[in-house]
Amino acid sequence: MKALIIGAGIGGMAAAAALRQQGIECDVFEAVKEIKPVGAAISVWSNGVKCMNHLGMGHIMDELGGPMRNMAYQDGKTGQVMTQFSLKPLIDEVGERPCPVSRAGLQSMMVDSWGRDSVQFDKRIERVEETEQGVSAYFTDGTVAHGDLMIAADGARSVVRGYVLGMELERRYAGYVNWNGLVAADALIAPLDQWTTFVGEGKRVSVMPISDQRFYFFFDVPLPVGLEENRATLKDDLKGYFAGWADPVQKLIDALDPETTNRIEIHDVEPFDTFVKGRVALLGDSAHSTTPDIGQGGCSAMEDAVVLGMAFADTQDIESALQAYQSKRHERAKDLVLKARKRCDVTHGKNMKVTQAWYDELKQEQGDNIMAGLKETIIGGPLG
Ligand code: URC
């Protein structure tokens, strides 16, 4: 049996690993010559780490995961700590740690784990054709690949999604712009072993420790969509949006490199239930594109891959296995997208009264409520 994997991002490489564990041959195709993720880093929460372990890629987490042991919220303006606590009770309870990782590092190590020479780059899919016997991928360079099934991990702007759903979906603007990148970890910005978030005015500034004494940082500002983007004014823009914010925030802006800082208008896609048509399955962002607000985009793709592998462990009948994959995944994936959307709205001042109430809550928080929310998200995954 041979699978065509469309996309060599997190979802595609996780799917290839999962199918290989079931003895299924995979040909992997990637649209671009060189993958350049739009996010500098990504949170792999404990559910994602469990998936990576299950898929034989736990070593990547060991190597890339940052020392995120504590969590804190601080008032953006005054810098005052609103809540600060150890994540140990959560880690002990769910049985695995969270691993914020560099996106480029993760991407590269996942491709290496599969075999870099076994990924065909510069292969952009244009069209899918299915017959009783199999499925064909037609690429824009005029070439065609044939397989028994197709896993379309071709991202939030998936081409294959239109084929599976029979219609195109619009992405929904989530209402905020996110600037993200990596800087040298600096204790004057935040403790080196802590996920620290400064909040105020519906904005947020956050740093997460990743490997090699670096911070993943992101700045979120609620803004209209389609504003001009200009690297030359990036620092001044941030200085403007965060005028009067506490010293660590100013230090972070001073420290960042505008050349390697990404500016993303955050979108998601309204959840849908159909991930599969015949021999073709959507996986990862193509099936459920989320805002990053609960750090579950990558994890959800990894979960898809694990469940896909489990489905083929149960049956080698392609259509039955893909149907089982869909029925086990669509509710969970939808939950995560909607949970992220809800958090997004509270965090980013969709209704400032609600956001203010959240700030007030944070000042009373001992960690239990936040960890209960994180736990619920984590244990809802396929590996518990
Ligand atoms: N939570 C995360 C977030 N990661 O775990 C992450 C967030 N990355 O709210 N936002 C973001 O950009």
Could you spell the SSE succession in H and E letters? EHEEHHEEHEHEEEEEHEEEEHHEEEHHHH
Task: Tally the beta strands.
Answer: 18
| Lateral strand order in the biggest sheet | 5-4-13-14-15-12-16
What gyration radius follows from the Cα positions, in whole Å? 21 Å
Mean pLDDT comes to 97
- Total of helices: 12
Q: Name the overall outline.
A: globular
Report, as a whole number of angstroms, the end-to-end distance.
30 Å
Helix content: 25-40%
The main pleated sheet reads as: 7 strands, mixed
Instruction: Catalogue the unreliable spans.
Output: none
The percent range for strand residues is 25-35%
* Helix/sheet category: alpha/beta
Query: What small molecules accompany the polymer chains?
Result: uric acid
Short description:
The protein is α/β, with parallel strands linked by helices. The protein is 37% helix and 26% strand. It has a seven-stranded mixed β-sheet, with helices on both faces. Strands 7-2-1-11-18-17 form a six-stranded mixed β-sheet.
Describe the structure.
- The protein is built from 12 helices and 18 strands.
- 49% of the residues are buried.
- The two termini are 30 Å apart.
- Helix content is 37%, strand content 26%.
- The longest helix has 30 residues.
- It is globular, with a radius of gyration of 21 Å.
- A 7-stranded mixed sheet has the order 5-4-13-14-15-12-16, with helices on both faces.
- It binds uric acid (URC).
- The site of uric acid (URC) has 7 residues, from loops.
List the main descriptive attributes of the protein structure presented here:
384 residues; alpha/beta; seven-stranded mixed beta sheet; 12 helices; 37% helix; binds uric acid; FAD-dependent urate hydroxylase; FAD-bd; FAD/NAD-bd_sf; oxidoreductase; monooxygenase
